[in-house]
Design a protein that fits this description.
283 residues; alpha/beta; TIM Barrel; 8-stranded parallel β-sheet; 8 strands; 13% strand
Amino acid sequence: MKQAVLQAIFDPEPRLPLVMGIMNLDPNSFYKASIPIHEKDALDKIEKWIQSGMSILDIGAFTSRPGSKIPKSDDELRTLLPCLKAISKEFPELVVSIDTVHSDTAKACIESGAEIINDISGGLMDPKMAEIISQDQKILVLMHMRGSPENMQSKENINYENILTEIIDYFINRVETLRKKAVTKIIIDPGFGFSKTLTDNYKILSNLSLFKILDAPLMVGLSRKSMFWKIEQTSAEQVLPATLTANTFAILNGCRIIRVHDVDEHMQSIRVIQNCQNELRQI
């Protein structure tokens, strides 16, 4: 399973999107239902997700919601490693992604079985990140964000002349820099909700097909984001339908990986898309 998923990420002619399930270990995470109560709860949830069709598990030890501070690597590892080791032992064929900006965290987690490092700073917060990724030829999720979670929504960081042009230029330059450092397996993430206004988020979503120019697999993290619940004047708990709609739109516009809290529901959506595409091919 592991090798098949890793190959599917970079398949030039993909058939189906891949689902990345979100497991938050920080009690301050914005969606409380994604936080496991204890180790058995986490393992039970993962087993269910795998049976539903999840391809990748993304584990984070801290919340990156606006205003939050990034913890030290040591604090992060105290939370991450016991969980990661238990998961790697129970599900050795599962592809695991670790959400971190620290190279020390990335190194320790790679040694414990992680295949993907999901770095919201794109390797900019820790200059050693590229070296750690390249040593074992692991995969880097390169996300767009200005500043840090603590200040990313400041007036300065959400001021763009042309957000689409600026983000695509950022990715072109960053991918070129990383490839010169031997980081060759890169996934692109536009960073919904990270140094973006509500309008920015919808402008990016509406123009996802433009990111095909980057010739890299595209991942989106839209799950239960404030761009939905602010419009509906509700909460993260109430916007699963909006999330499903947005992720379906993303898939139809070239997204390879969807990062979600609700695996079962998204697998249902994907099966509908698959059946429609199969019928189209027969015309």
